[in-house]
Write a structure and sequence with these properties.
Elements: H1 7-20, H2 32-70, H3 76-85, H4 92-101, H5 103-114
Helix pairs in contact: 1-2, 2-4, 4-5
Amino acid sequence: MPRSVNAVASRQRRKKLLKQTKGQFGRRKNVWTVAKNSLEKGLGYAYRDRKTKKRNFRGLWITRINAGVRQYDLSYSTFMGKLAEKNITLNRKTLADLAMNHPDAFKAIIEAVKK
């Protein structure tokens, strides 16, 4: 009895992987073993960096809020503490946006906190 190999499925699997590595340089895009290793490494980096991206943005928002608050003789930590005392629930992303793009609204928040 002849050996049965599912060539159709194997080819589909390889084509799918090579399609994902399209755009890479050299043998990474067209040699099966190199492309497979490259794709696995890239997907690992993508997973890791989706988490890192969140950390980076939070740091950026904190820096922007701190820069905006320093103009009014406050530090970031005291500002955030006073926000919590006054039960003003704005997240850091919103506060950073206000500090950069809407300074009048940000000033109103600071004045509400200082009272």
